[in-house]
Design brief:
CATH class of the largest domain: Alpha Beta
Largest sheet: 7 strands, mixed
Strand content: 25-35%
Oligomer: single chain
Radius of gyration: 21 Å
CATH topology of the largest domain: Rossmann fold
CATH architecture of the largest domain: 3-Layer(aba) Sandwich
Helix content: 25-40%
Strand order of the largest sheet: 6-5-7-8-9-10-11
């Protein structure tokens, strides 16, 4: 097994790119690992990729993805987007979203354009690379997380308008930046998936070709999301019990809640274990966050449940202002939320912060937010 230590440099990405191309052709397994990350316990054999994932619970797992699964995901992506093209890699290469950019480029017969991510994401470097890529003939794509999209909209939205599609995943995207992007001519495609599904497999709420969705329906029309298709991982390396729980009869049991609208389009409501039980009622944080981020002056929001002696949990929101110099009043935000949410959903408290703690490729770290708020209220 070839272990690639990814430090954000182009040199490390090119090493990974070569290893992935060899793996896709039947060569040895490849395992991209981030700085300070452990190494997989063993070699799973040829034509396999091993990617680490911790999930929101912090339990580390090694996901084993076959070349066939990665290839099926990449081909389905190109089919949905309108055909193969050239890709700009702006995500960490050790994560599945970054790996898939390299796989898609390889199957399209070209090499991805790379950003040097040492020192973090630089909108100016991205803009320069995007203009180079989109000025040439042929289709071109990129993949981002919401925080990157917002930074680019604030600096050079025009650099995104030349892409035939901008995949957006890793976290729920607030409606406001989506509206801003589309108004600027950016072809944004929201994606849903995880390492266990070789990356995004549901685009704008609709499954890619070959992907199946079903819901373990509970009261209220929502339920746990289950996914099936040729892009599914083999399982968790050297973790048979975890594999047996998550992968059953060809279906992957996600930890997410979702519902389908009248047309069958999937709406993801967030992780099942993030649901807040307040006064005996269930509140999905994502639904509250969607309302808060639609209010004037709100750039981002994270909603958690804090211990409460009367309610069991009380709905609490952290809000990031669009303009830190002129933040909205928490009382005014709560009043506006009262008009748009049910009584149980309305945050009992709204806290203003300058930024949210993040994990992975840009997901809000809900556990860190909760820990911070509990300590603040002591």
């Amino acid at each position: 097994m070839r272990v690639i230590h990814c430090d954000g440099s182009p040199e490390a990405v090119w090493e990974l790119d070569a290893a992935l191309r060899a793996m896709l052709a039947g060569g040895e397994a490849v395992a991209p690992v981030g700085l300070g990350q452990a190494i997989p316990p063993r070699d799973p054999g040829p034509s396999q990729a091993v990617l680490g994932t911790s999930g929101s619970t912090g339990g580390h797992k090694w996901v084993q993805l076959s070349a066939a699964a990665l290839g099926a995901s990449a081909e389905a992506t190109h089919a949905r987007l309108g055909g193969p093209g050239r890709w700009l890699l702006a995500l960490p290469a050790e994560h599945v979203a970054g790996v898939q950019v390299l796989v898609r480029a390889a199957l399209a017969g070209n090499r991805a354009e790379l950003l040097d991510l040492r020192g973090g994401f630089d909108p100016a470097r991205f803009s320069a690379a995007a203009h180079r890529l989109t000025s040439a003939a042929g289709r071109c794509y990129t993949a981002l997380v919401p925080t990157q999209l917002v930074r680019l909209l604030d600096t050079d939205a025009g650099c995104l308008a030349g892409f035939d599609a901008v995949l957006l995943g890793g976290a729920v995207t607030p409606e406001r930046p989506l509206h801003r992007a589309r108004a600027a001519g950016v072809q944004v495609v929201t994606t849903y998936g995880m390492t266990e599904t070789a990356g995004g497999c549901v685009y704008d709420g609709w499954p890619l070709d070959g992907v199946k969705i079903r819901l373990d329906i509970a009261a209220g029309g929502s339920g746990n999301v289950e996914l099936a298709g040729p892009m599914l991982a083999t399982g968790y390396l050297d973790a048979p019990e975890q594999t047996a729980v998550a992968f059953r009869d060809g279906w992957f049991q996600t930890s997410d809640l979702g519902r389908c609208d009248g047309q069958g389009r999937l709406q993801v409501l967030g992780r099942a274990d993030d649901v807040i039980i307040t006064g005996g009622l269930n509140v999905a944080p994502a639904e509250v966050e969607a309302v808060l981020t639609g209010l004037p002056g709100v750039a981002a929001a994270c909603v958690v449940g804090l211990p409460d002696p009367d309610w069991g949990e009380r709905v609490t929101a952290v809000v990031i202002p669009t303009d830190p110099g002129r933040p909205p009043e928490p009382g005014a935000l709560r009043l506006a939320a009262c008009r748009l949410l049910t009584g149980a959903q309305v945050p009992k408290e709204i806290v203003l912060l300058d930024a949210l703690p993040l994990r992975g490729v840009g997901k809000p770290d809900r556990r860190a937010v909760r820990t911070m708020l509990v300590a603040r209220n002591r």
